[in-house]
Amino acid sequence: MMKYSNVFEIDGSAGDKYDVLVKSNGKHVCIMCSCPASDYNALCHHIIDVINDNPEVRDLLVESGQWQVYEAYLAKLDEAKKIKREAAALKKQFTRELVIPPKSWSVEEESE
After folding, report:
1. Residue 62's closest CA among 74, 53, 71?
2. How many other CB atoms are found less than 10 A from the CB of residue 51?
3. Of 6, 20, 23, 90, which is least packed with CB atoms within 10 Å of its CB?
4. Nearest to 21 by CA among 53, 58, 46, 2
């Protein structure tokens, strides 16, 4: 793998501009962003955008072996989104059953 260094300017969601630095020492790829999330070592969407939109960055990650971890992360993220949707649907169903009584049920029956 070759040594590499490049800075990508990315538009933030509020109109701010952030720099995403991609560096490779020939063995390992490091990606950093200037957005506030990076202060917490978070994987921000600016970094994800750079990875997804730039074939040379993807190639570096593949060559370093880091791409496999990224793909596994994306797969688990998709799985988590699906589970979240399923849980929301079950919560909605349970809420309807719990809060809205069946037409055959009446409050008078309970007070007897």
Report:
1. 71
2. 21
3. 90
4. 46
